[in-house]
Design brief:
This protein has helices at 24-27, 46-51, 67-80, 97-100, 102-108, 111-121, 182-190, 252-258, 261-285, 293-316, and strands at 36-38, 56-59, 62-63, 92-94, 125-127, 136-139, 149-152, 158-163, 175-178, 200-201, 210-214, 221-223, 233-241. Helix 8 (252-258) packs antiparallel against helix 9 and helix 9 (261-285) runs antiparallel to helix 10. Strands 3, 4, 5, 6, 8, 11 and 13 form a 7-stranded antiparallel β-sheet that branches. It has a 4-stranded antiparallel β-sheet with strand order 7-12-9-10, with no helix packed on it. A two-stranded antiparallel sheet has the order 1-2. The protein is of the alpha+beta class.
Length: 326
């Protein structure tokens, strides 16, 4: 069961009325991707590779929604478009839509999708417990040719990027991976070099409701702008490893650029509380008699470190927004 409740909405958020009900039997059409890329395929080695929750990096295109599901999501997203905001990386995006739309929320929390993605990754996942990391919506900028999003890595471990609109009706607007590490991308940009075309993967999206899945904090990616008038909308949905022993990757200092700081702080603190509580429940509350005292002390220290690190992030506040540019 998802541990965050939506009984109380943040100030300024109101629920949509007269929404359709999400029905996985009607709205989903899950199909496995043909190709999986590993972190090794991207060039990762050593500590980065060993400490990652999974060796999985990204997928080729796969289907998530049925035709009816894609149409229903599109109409829901269009009702949310009026709440679009901007940040230094993205000109038009809607975050927190799961507070306003129950259809979007139920889609993002779908156990069917979570189980399906867990099987692809080879790791049990759960929907992200920061609600603003669920159902993030990107809209194309008003200016033709301006990128939707810059080269970057995500502030979450795993996410899928799904087209809400039909990409085959647009010119441009590709979603792209960098076939390399984030350190290599940083070196290219520092040297003022262009990203080599043969190191850019542009998955061919056959229509709305199709997606790619990635280990977002290690896969460098961007969203190209349209080269002719059109409509391009994508949805990003975030996940965390179900096992709370994996270190959290949420970046409070980066989230403050995208979301209201009062909402970010409450969401982030709840997220850390959930993670720490799950860690304590798994490792200490259910502890059997006779466990090595050193192991118990180590678990207590790790739980304390989770809370102390989060407190330090909140005290530090907003940092410089991180990305690699266009």
């Amino acid at each position: 069961m998802y541990p965050i409740h939506f009984n109380e909405l943040p100030n300024g958020y109101a629920a949509l009325e007269n929404e359709p009900e999400f029905d996985p039997a009607i709205h989903l059409a899950l199909e496995k991707p043909e190709t999986l890329y590993s972190l090794s395929d991207l060039g990762y080695t050593g500590e980065t590779l060993e400490s990652a929750p999974a060796k999985f990096a990204a997928t080729s295109v796969f289907r998530v929604l049925s035709a009816e599901g894609a149409e229903t999501l599109y109409h829901t997203v269009k009702r949310l478009e009026e709440f679009a905001t901007s940040n230094p990386r993205i000109e038009r995006n809607v975050r927190g839509g799961v507070y306003r739309s129950k259809f979007l929320r139920d889609l993002c929390l779908s156990p069917d999708i979570t189980e399906f993605l867990s099987d692809i990754v080879g790791l049990k996942l759960m929907p992200h417990t920061i609600p603003h990391q669920l159902g993030h919506l990107n809209f194309n900028p008003k200016d033709i040719g301006k990128n939707v999003d810059k080269w970057h890595v995500d502030t979450l471990r795993f996410d899928y990027v799904m087209f809400v609109t039909d990409p085959t009706k647009n010119q441009g607007g590709q979603f792209q991976y960098f076939k390399g590490t984030k350190e290599e991308m940083a070196a290219l940009k520092k040297a003022g070099q262009e990203v080599p075309a043969d190191r850019v993967i542009s998955p061919a999206m056959p229509g709305p409701g199709y997606a790619v899945l990635q280990q977002g904090n290690l896969v460098v990616h961007q969203a190209k702008g349209l080269t002719a008038p059109g409509e391009r909308i994508t949805m990003v949905n975030g996940y965390v490893p179900h096992d709370p022993r994996f270190p959290d990757y949420s970046r409070y200092d980066q989230l403050c650029h995208a979301d209201p700081e009062d909402v970010v702080t409450t969401e982030y603190s709840k997220h850390i509380a959930v993670q720490a509580n799950r860690f304590l429940e798994q490792n200490l509350v259910q502890q059997k008699f006779g466990e090595n005292p050193a192991n118990i002390a180590q678990d207590l220290e790790q739980a304390a470190e989770m809370l102390q690190f989060a407190a330090a992030q909140i005290r530090a506040g907003k940092g410089t927004m991180e990305h690699f540019g266009d």
